[in-house]
Task: structure prediction
Amino acid sequence: MTAKAATSKSIQRSPCVVSNVLEIIGDRWTLLLVRDLLFFNKHEYKEFLASPENIATNILADRLKKLLNEGLVGEIIHPENKSRKLYYLTSKGKDLMPILLEMVKWGAAYLPETKEMKLIFERVKNDPELLKTQVLDSLEQWEKQMLKANGTA
Amino acid sequence: MTAKAATSKSIQRSPCVVSNVLEIIGDRWTLLLVRDLLFFNKHEYKEFLASPENIATNILADRLKKLLNEGLVGEIIHPENKSRKLYYLTSKGKDLMPILLEMVKWGAAYLPETKEMKLIFERVKNDPELLKTQVLDSLEQWEKQMLKANGTA
DNA sequence: GCACTTGCTTGCAAAATGCAAGTGCTTGCT
DNA sequence: AGCAAGCACTTGCATTTTGCAAGCAAGTGC
Result:
């Protein structure tokens, strides 16, 4: 195992919220998975692997485990294929969206423009609230299809 | 040297803003320094060392170097003591505040309550805009005293 | 001159990461 | 039923990053 699962219940090394939040999402990969789940409708292992950042399989497995442990993400087996799994954001995970959107805003202001994210750039700048509801609606849509039997998320 | 300075000009491994932002602030330490500079009026090396997270001296030196390289932070020698340095946030660095505040909000919602941050908790929840202007005013105050000769920040 | 502070650097052990190659389960095809 | 292929991982190992303790030069206070 690459790393032990860090639950929020484990001993905090700091009394500061920021520090404790960073213990969960403060690394190069975790928020990228949240991004994929939130904005790019990705739900499967292989889809995360296909992201442009090229996450290694061991890191991906490790981060998914942590996200599950933290309760940011849930999983089910694919209804049509037992050998596949579907990952989805819980409300705790979805609530990271404001953080991501602020990062997008900051990036839009200070980073060299990237074509691929121009779409979200514009939507964040024009009407962030609209974007949020659109994103959440889209996820709800998916959940209705895939999770209808469950009371999760 | 612990790590090479990663400028935003270096080759991006992804076209995604989130990814590129995380290359700058996506680690356990960088945002804690920004937090100290922004909310706790810390400006000196030894003050960062005194934070409850206990950053190691080599990591601190490395992160300060990176923050300077990225243009998030500026430095001057202490006007009254040549052997001390003063670090301060540029506007690029200050503009990370919304990200930090969203982290505080998320932490307030999902993390076990911590006494030490209750103050900022309340201020974020009650009136985020007021908090922002208060924080920025406080920094400006400091800058007027310390940086009066310079046109920086 | 001398002890002390300050902002680092250095050396080394431990941990996290990245890469390539498995492993075991399921599935589709014949 | 048999077999190749897909899928979600795991494993081993080299490289990189962290963490800790110790040092060190430049300045300051006496």
In short: Chain B is about 55% helix and 10% strand. The two ends of chain B are 28 Å apart (CA to CA).
